[in-house]
C-alpha cells in the first residue's frame, strides 16, 4: 500500500475516486490529490493540482506510488506568476503600460500639474497582484465669478488659478466691504474643496 507521510489529510469518498485535500503541506502546496478507489500498489499513479502561484515541475504530470510514498517528493514548485495591466488610478497616468508584468516589476504613475500625489509613485507586481497605494488629490480652483459673489480678492493681489491640496490662501474684502465673520479670511484647500469667506 502506498502510504502518505505528510500531515493529517481530509478524505472525501466519492463513487470512483478518493480526493485528498492537503493545504498545509510545507513541501507540496497541494490543492487536490486524486487516486483510484481501492488498494493502491507500487506503480499506481495519482493526479493532483497545485495551489495558485505554484506549478508542477517540468516533465511531471502525475504522482507515482513508490516504496518511499508518493513521488516526486516535491510535487509543486513556485511558479512564475504574472500580473495583468496595472489598475487605473483616478486622475493618474502611466507611461508605456504593458499587458503583462513579471513578478517584481513596477510601474510608475504620474499626477497632473497642481495635483498632489499621496503614496506612490510606484505599484509593484507581487504574486499576481498589484501592491502599493497611491492617489492623485485634486487642487482647488476659485473662479473670478465666485470671488465676485463673495466680494473678496486675493490678499496679495496674485491671481491663483489653482491651489494645491493642503495649501493656504488669504483673501481680503473688496473696497468698502467688511468680513461677515462667519469664516476666517485665511483658508486651506482640502481635497479639491476650499471654503470662501464673504464680505458685505
Automatic annotation (TrEMBL):
Q: Which residues form the Sushi domain?
A: 81-138
Pfam families with a match to the protein in the record? Sushi
Where in or outside the cell it occurs: the entry states: Virion
Q: Which SMART domains match?
A: CCP (SM00032)
Q: What are the record keywords, sorted?
A: Disulfide bond, Signal, Sushi
**SUPFAM superfamilies documented for this protein:** Complement control module/SCR domain
Has keyword tRNA-binding? no
The UniProt entry, under InterPro entries, shows: ComplSys_Reg/VirEntry_Med (IPR051503), Sushi/SCR/CCP_sf (IPR035976), Sushi_SCR_CCP_dom (IPR000436)
Spell out the Gene3D superfamilies in the cross-references. Complement Module, domain 1
Residues of the signal peptide: 1-19
Record PANTHER family: COMPLEMENT FACTOR H-RELATED
Please report the name of this protein according to its UniProt entry.
Sushi domain-containing protein
This protein's species is: Oryzias latipes
